[in-house]
Every structure is written in C-alpha cells, then in structure tokens.
Amino acid sequence: MEYKSKSSLMGLPLIHVNLGAMEDGRPRVGVARGWIAIGTVAHGVIAGVGGAATGCVAAGGVAFGAVALGGLAIAALAIGGVALGWWAVGGLAAGWYAIGGLALGWKAALGGAAFANDFSLGGAASAVHANDQAAKEFFASTPFFSEGRNAMRHSQWVLILLLLPAVLPWLKAKSRSEAS
Questions:
Q1: C-beta neighbour count of 157 within 10 angstroms
Q2: What is the pTM assigned to this prediction?
Q3: Are 58 and 80 within 8 A, CB to CB?
Q4: Strands (E) located in the chain
Q5: What's the confidence (pLDDT) of residue 162?
Q6: Residues 11, 17, 19, 22: is their CA dihedral positive or negative?
Q7: How many CA atoms within 13 Å lie on the side-chain side of 88?
Q8: How confident is the model at residue 169 (pLDDT cuts 50, 70, 90)?
Q9: Helix, strand, or coil (residue 85)
Q10: 177 class by beta-carbon count within 10 Å (0-12 exposed, 13-18 middle, 19+ buried)
Q11: What secondary structure letter does DSSP report for 22?
Q12: φ/ψ (deg, to 5) at 179
C-alpha cells in the first residue's frame, strides 16, 4: 500500500506512506521519503515511522534521529525498548539521563535497576546519591524525570497519538479505493 500527499515542500511530499507490497509472490520493502514518512523503511525530515526510520523525529523498529521512538531508538531523546541517547527512556535505557527497567545514566538514572555516577532511584540503585533524600530532590526538580514519570503513567495515550499519523492517511486512501 502506498500513499503520497499531493502537497509538497522543497521537493518532498508532506506525507509519504509506503508499507510495501507483494510482487511475484515476494514481499517488496516499502521505502517512504517525505516530511512525514511511514514505511517499512522511512526517511523523514520531521518524522519517519517504519521498520527502520531516520529523521528529526523518527519512529520504527529501528529509529535514528533527534527524537527517536522504536524498538531500538538512538537519538538525543530516545524512547524505545532499547533507548540510547542524551535523554533515554526505555526497557533498557542508557544516556546522560535515563529512565527505564534497567536505567544506565551517566549523571542520573531512575528505574527498576538504576545505575549512575551522581543520582539514582530504583529497586536496585547505585550512585553517589542512591535512594537518598538528595536523589529524591534531584529527580523531583529535574523536568526530564518529573515529566518522564508523568509520560510513563499515561504512555498508552502517547502510543495512540504516535499511531494517528500512520493510520489517518491509510484510512483516507482505503476510503478512496473503495469509492472507485
């Protein structure tokens, strides 16, 4: 299935969805390129959503960008199963600041198992300030951690919002094909 918006900017479509297809009984990889790109492989300026995605904001199985969401996310702000970035949130999160099941932070880590140089809070925590009052104050006063906790409490809504750009063009293209 492929959808490309008629609107474009600087030669790139605003939205390009390419989920691939079957050709001669074999799957064809869907490569999407656009400001917002959704595909098996997606290269987006603002967002890429796909199996492998790159862009300023990227989401996919493997995602690279300034902000990345994916199974493996590598970015300044990485959110994923495995998240590597300056600010990392994930099942396994590693970065300057990290939130996760296993959080490895250079400065600070928050999670089930949290390891950092300066501050950590968690079931198993190791840092200069681990599970003490100084750590609690640091995490309460640092926006990344206070907002990260809020986001994790409402993560189902974040996932729904992330899926909307992928679903809406597909629904529009499907309704057009049914109408013809």
A1: 10
A2: 0.73
A3: no
A4: 2-4, 8-9, 12-13, 15-18, 21-23, 26-28, 31-116, 119-126, 129-130
A5: 60
A6: negative
A7: 33
A8: low
A9: strand
A10: exposed
A11: E
A12: -75, -25
